[in-house]
């Protein structure tokens, strides 16, 4: 499986980039956010997911392994294909998708191009309990693809499993989520509180997120 592509950007299309890797051109489909950061003539490195169908062979590229994992997870929802998954990641970014699922905010998911209300609600309903799992990956897996070497390189590897919005780092959110879990809070409630705290305090560090989340989780009355 092709897990990473590194080379020189030849050109960009509306939804893909052509990357030259030692004389071989790879068409890699990406979100609008990723494409905006790629420029013809410059080196680039992306983690990739290879989709193989009977009459189709396509590569999808992501700057981090966590974003790649969100792509895979979104496609497990009935009616959500690669195009829809990229649209959601492009509109919200990995952190935005994570926050929308944790808060059950299907209207945020619906903001993505081509995503209707029924699909948005299905995404939230099917993935809300899985959001904490991917959020927790941010502590160790939200690494960016290493820079491309000047002459380009293609790495084939098994790649296991968030992105440009003003919220606390994925690592801080993951650490806060882990701390709340250790205190006995359920993953769903903890994820929702951390997501809300992150949205309300973009500058918060791990300790700040934990304090804010505990206030939100405290019994009212």
Automatic annotation (TrEMBL):
Keywords: Cytoplasm, DNA damage, DNA recombination, DNA repair, DNA-binding. It is found in: Cytoplasm. It holds the Pfam family RuvA_N. Residues 170-221 are annotated as: Domain III. InterPro entries: DNA_helicase_Holl-junc_RuvA_I, Hlx-hairpin-Hlx_DNA-bd_motif, NA-bd_OB-fold, RuvA, RuvA_2-like, RuvA_C, RuvA_C_sf. Gene3D superfamilies: 5' to 3' exonuclease, C-terminal subdomain (1.10.150.20), DNA helicase RuvA subunit, C-terminal domain (1.10.8.10), Nucleic acid-binding proteins (2.40.50.140). SUPFAM superfamilies: DNA helicase RuvA subunit, C-terminal domain (SSF46929), Nucleic acid-binding proteins (SSF50249), RuvA domain 2-like (SSF47781). Its main location: cytoplasm. Signal peptide: none annotated. Residues 72-91, 107-126 form the Helix-hairpin-helix DNA-binding motif class domain. It comes from the Bacteria. The RuvA-RuvB-RuvC complex processes Holliday junction (HJ) DNA during genetic recombination and DNA repair, while the RuvA-RuvB complex plays an important role in the rescue of blocked DNA replication forks via replication fork reversal (RFR). RuvA specifically binds to HJ cruciform DNA, conferring on it an open structure. The RuvB hexamer acts as an ATP-dependent pump, pulling dsDNA into and through the RuvAB complex. HJ branch migration allows RuvC to scan DNA until it finds its consensus sequence, where it cleaves and resolves the cruciform DNA. Homotetramer. Forms an RuvA(8)-RuvB(12)-Holliday junction (HJ) complex. HJ DNA is sandwiched between 2 RuvA tetramers; dsDNA enters through RuvA and exits via RuvB. An RuvB hexamer assembles on each DNA strand where it exits the tetramer. Each RuvB hexamer is contacted by two RuvA subunits (via domain III) on 2 adjacent RuvB subunits; this complex drives branch migration. In the full resolvosome a probable DNA-RuvA(4)-RuvB(12)-RuvC(2) complex forms which resolves the HJ. Has three domains with a flexible linker between the domains II and III and assumes an 'L' shape. Domain III is highly mobile and contacts RuvB. Belongs to the RuvA family. HAMAP family: DNA_HJ_migration_RuvA (MF_00031). This is Holliday junction branch migration complex subunit RuvA. It comes from Ponticoccus alexandrii.
């Amino acid at each position: 499986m092709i897990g990473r592509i590194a080379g020189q950007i030849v050109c960009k299309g509306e939804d893909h980039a052509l990357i030259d890797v030692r004389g071989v051109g790879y068409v890699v489909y990406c979100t609008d956010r990723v494409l905006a950061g790629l420029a013809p003539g410059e080196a680039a490195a992306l983690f990739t997911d290879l989709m193989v169908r009977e009459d189709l062979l396509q590569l999808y590229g992501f700057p981090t392994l966590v974003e790649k994992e969100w792509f895979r997870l979104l496609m497990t929802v009935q009616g959500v294909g690669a195009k829809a998954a990229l649209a959601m990641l492009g509109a919200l970014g990995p952190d935005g998708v994570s926050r929308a699922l944790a808060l059950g905010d299907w209207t945020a998911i619906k903001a993505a191009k081509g995503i209707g209300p029924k699909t948005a609600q299905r995404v939230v309903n099917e993935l809300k309990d899985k959001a904490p799992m991917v959020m927790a990956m941010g502590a160790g897996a939200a690494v960016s693809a290493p820079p491309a070497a000047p002459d380009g390189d293609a790495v084939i590897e098994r790649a296991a499993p968030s992105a440009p919005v003003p919220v606390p780092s994925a690592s801080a959110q993951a650490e806060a989520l882990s701390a709340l879990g250790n205190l006995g809070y359920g993953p769903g409630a903890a994820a929702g509180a951390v997501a809300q705290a992150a949205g309300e305090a973009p500058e918060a560090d791990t300790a700040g997120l934990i304090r804010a989340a505990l206030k939100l989780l405290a019994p009212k009355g």
